[in-house]
Amino acid sequence: MIVFDLQCSARHVFEAWFGSSAAYDEQRARGLLACPICGDAAVTKAVMAPNIPAKGNRATNQSTAPAAVTVAANAPSPKDIKAALQVIAKAQAEMLAQSTWVGRGFADTARAMHDGTVAQAPIHGQTTLAEAKALVEEGVPIAPLPLPIAPPETVN
After folding, report:
1. Which has more pLDDT, 60 or 102?
2. Which of 38, 43, 77, 119 has its CA 20 to 30 A from that of 130?
3. R_g of the chain, CA atoms, integer Å
4. Average of pLDDT values for 60-88?
5. Residue 78 CB contacts under 8 Å (≥ 6 apart), including other chains
6. Residue 95 binned pLDDT confidence (cut-offs 50, 70, 90)
7. How far apart are CA 76 and CA 69, in angstroms?
8. SS3 letters for 94-152?
9. What is d(CA 16, CA 5) in angstroms, rounded to the nearest whole number?
10. In this predicted model, what pLDDT tens digit does every residue of 79-94 receive, in sequence order?
């Protein structure tokens, strides 16, 4: 068996296996080859790099070693990430200081505020994922906190 990289006129490259080079030539001449992506029958051999293994008595090429992990040049430094998290934590703490903890009653309280049976006020608390999804589906305006918090009763 022989494998060829083939390419259609739309420049899609794909791999195909043939019994021999002559089998490829015969199938191409009979119009039996088509691009599996777009169906184009104008298929030719694509440029391929041969896969020639190193001799058994030679040292392995360093280029075959796993690539080192690199960091993008524009990636933020750990110091920048820590500073950004501190800004977020400070903003969240200021917001929570002006909000009332309603604990596990969050979904019921938020729903009651939305329905107008309870006065609107900033609240925070706990809810299950299913309860949060139901609130969103009902149009109740809620948002998760960016950083986790410990419930007031668990703070030492």
Report:
1. 102
2. 119
3. 31
4. 70
5. none
6. very high
7. 16
8. HHHHCCEEEECCHHHHHHHHHHCCCCCCCEEECCCHHHHHHHHHCCCCCCCCCCCCCCH
9. 6
10. 888 898 899 999 999 9
Give me the torsion for CA of 123, 126, 127, 128, rounded to 10°: 160
Among 101, 107, 92, residue whose Cα is nearest residue 152:
101
Phi-psi region of 66 (alpha: psi -120 to 50; beta: other; left: phi over 0): beta
Q: How far is CA 5 from CA 18, 30, 44, 115, in A?
A: 11, 19, 9, 64
Taking alpha carbons only, the member of 92, 5, 96 closest to residue 47 is 5
| Residue-wise pLDDT tens digits, 98-140 | 999 999 999 999 999 999 999 999 999 999 999 999 999 999 9
- Which residues make Cβ contacts (< 8 Å) with residue 132, sequence separation at least 6? 107, 142, 144
Packing angle, helices 106-115 and 129-137, rounded to 10: 10
Helices and strands (DSSP H and E) totals, the chain: 4, 5
Long-range contacts of 47-54, Cβ-Cβ distance < 8 Å, separation of 24 or more: 47/5, 48/4, 48/5
Answer whether residue 65 shows pLDDT above 50. no
